């Protein structure tokens, strides 16, 4: 009897154990679900605005994108375009700004990502040089330029001071477009002397067809200078050399017509010419871009009329200037350009200041087109990834806005050039019968992509027709850009 009770007890324990095991197998503990990654909203080009007060503060730097950009220099590295620019910020005092050259990158030239600063502070070599020469260096760096030589990236920077004309252009190098950067030396300097000398800021570098490196630089005072560099080091070929002047401005009544600065130099192998882009006038208002060309990197660089731009006169063509389409506040301060090429297409980058508040600074990138006579012209609208397919003749008929980039000389600088002198749009209507603006004596012909306009007063223009984006009205459109026979730029945007 006792054995039977023991047996039954053991059997009961076994059944309970099996039952517990079966329950464990039937009701396993559910794993913690892995949260889905957050959905990143698709980029909307319409999110790019003219003003950006909401993200202007320094604490919002990760969201600056195309904002707070001044004096851009752009280079393509692998899948990205990198943009280096002056230390500036809307509504931020110089004392609060972070020094070191702002860096951005983009895969499409439209959506820009703020990367940070090239340096953690103003480079030691530049600041030391200025202090040794009796000045206090600025905290902030201006007007960089970048190029790649073999496997080395070379970043040139501008550092000015509290002493009139005491400035330096320095060089730092890296194996990556994002740094870290190592200082290599001072390339060229300027000082407060009575000797004619341009300000040592605003560098651009050319490697010519023979492999010689040259720097073009300067602002105000004594025009734009060209300095030969050592191709191996990126520094001046001859120590303490200032180079030679290659461009200057004209005078009215004994007063200079305005600033001349911010050169950019390229070689176009299709045109077999060197092109020197230069900025005229005050950066906040009338800032505009001129261009000269030469068969040699040493010059002489000639203007549209074949005149040497190193004479005491103003030169054209002026291919970019403050402008205003209908219903918009306009863009001023449109200069200090960076010009670069990718797969045969040339682009111009520059800052634009909205007319509603010109202390905002936006990055603009525009396509460059080349006229049959070999002059560059820029699109009247910023690049938006538009396709390059031919525009049919039927699509150009109808109402347009036309802007002619005329120019008015206002001698002086900041105190005198207080107006942006906007070039505003006027109506243009292309009729199917080959006339425009309702006058039979105004005629047009079209052989894609070139549109020829002939006004009854004898003026003519050949303009390049291209698909584009109407940034003012946030829609697709058609644009044109070209020059008159006298070298005046003419723009158009279809309504």
Automatic annotation (TrEMBL):
Residues 1-22 form the signal peptide. Belongs to the glycosyl hydrolase 43 family. PROSITE patterns: PROKAR_LIPOPROTEIN. Gene3D superfamilies: 2.40.128.10, Glycosyl hydrolase domain, family 43. This is Arabinan endo-1,5-alpha-L-arabinosidase. The keyword Ion transport does not apply. InterPro entries: Abn2_C, GH43_arabinanases, Glyco_hydro_43, Glyco_hydro_beta-prop_sf. Keywords: Glycosidase, Hydrolase, Signal. Residues 380-492 form the Extracellular endo-alpha-(1->5)-L-arabinanase C-terminal domain. Pathway: Glycan metabolism; L-arabinan degradation.
